[in-house]
Amino acid sequence: MKSQNGVTVMFQPEGRKAVVNRGISLLEAARKAGVTITTRCGGKAGCLMCKVKIANEEATALRPPGDIERRKLGTTLEEGVRLACQAAVWSDVTVQVPEDPLKAAVRRKLEAARRGEEDELW
Ligand code: FES
Asked: Using an 8 Å Cβ cutoff, are 112 and 50 in contact?
């Protein structure tokens, strides 16, 4: 349920959401929702590890990017990429969080191992 001044931020693919105050960053909203977005710079637009994606039709649900975010993201902004530490929530929005690179590598290894086992069965 939505609070009077709150907006709902849905994080996919985990399907977790948080009701937050307008103006907080997507990174803060993710923490509130229990979604991990890896960072190294502490939210200072330095590491670019907090990239998330927003559907074009929802672009206005976030405050427009500032100079720093524009400079860091360049043309990827047009593809809906935003820095979670810089993008401020304005209205209800769904955010696509890319898989953590380390987790992705482990998942690929496990899948390859599983396929190897299946190959042995045939
Ligand atoms: S947390 Fe480092 S760029 Fe956003």
From this structure: no
- Domains by residue range for the chain, with CATH: 6-121 (3.10.20.30)
Span from the CA of 111 to the centroid of ligand 1 (angstroms): 30
Instruction: Identify the bridge partners of residue 54 per DSSP, sorted by sequence position.
Output: 95
Q: pLDDT in tens for each of the 122 residues of the chain?
A: 445 679 999 999 999 999 999 999 999 999 999 999 989 999 999 999 999 999 999 999 999 999 999 999 999 999 999 999 999 999 999 999 998 777 888 888 999 999 886 555 45
Atom 1 of ligand 1, nearest CA residue: 43
H-helix or E-strand spanning residue 16: strand 16-21
Which residues line ligand 1 at a C-beta cut-off of 6 Å?
Answer: 39, 41, 43, 45-50, 83, 85
45 CA closest ligand 1 atom index: 3
